[in-house]
Spermidine/putrescine transport system permease protein (Actinoplanes lutulentus), 252 residues
Amino acid sequence: MLKKIPFWITYVFLYVPIVVVVAMSFNAGDSPYSWSGFSFSWYAELAKDEQIRIGLGNTLLVATGSTVIATVLGTLLAVGLARHTRSKILDAIATLPVILPDIVLAIGLLAFYSLIQLTLGLYSVLLAHAVFGTAAVAAVVRTRLNGTDPSLEEASRDLGANGFTTFLRITLPTLAPGIVAGALLAFTLSVDEFVIAFFTAGPQSPTLPIVIYSMVRFGVTPEINALATVLLAVTFTAIIAAARLTRLTERR
């Protein structure tokens, strides 16, 4: 029975709702369900909304900070696991934050913050996002490391360079495409993430997904559709850039 179902129906089911959201963001009327004409007015309203601007600023701050931390730690973690301490158990632990359901990781982080009596705010969200961001960066960089020749690093050390110099002159430039791809992935995950932010953010520091959630509880408006379209464009751009860099990583 399933073999008789055309494959394109799957794409219709997945993408038609997204297309409708994008189309209705250009609706001139205030109804999210009936078309009244083409207009950019809701994007102008979006730019005037102070609550959304605050949420966007918080999201960009958290995403940028967590991406920087995740990129540094994830790169070092990948190099350490691939070159110095090879262990399947440690590999599994390193990727665990990405595999775990968001709700489990969120509850665990909230319990940890409560244990150390950390007041919730933007910094608590930033650290929480850095946890799964580090795992994501490590996974991407590790893929790049698996395709590199370790003899280059050995040759550098044989020529008298110490470990730090070898890392800066040989390892880091070789890993650059993978590091950038991992950073873009971590940034995208942080911008879109809701559950962990909802559990670890303070009442005065909502991220953009939390602001959107508070708005859609009273119904979806064209302004929400416009905001979703903007986020969709940013996310697609980052994902495509990460995919291209990952392919470049695999070819070299």
User: Anything to note?
Assistant: The mean pLDDT is 82. The two ends are 44 Å apart (CA to CA). The chain has eleven helices and no strands. The chain has one domain: 49-251.
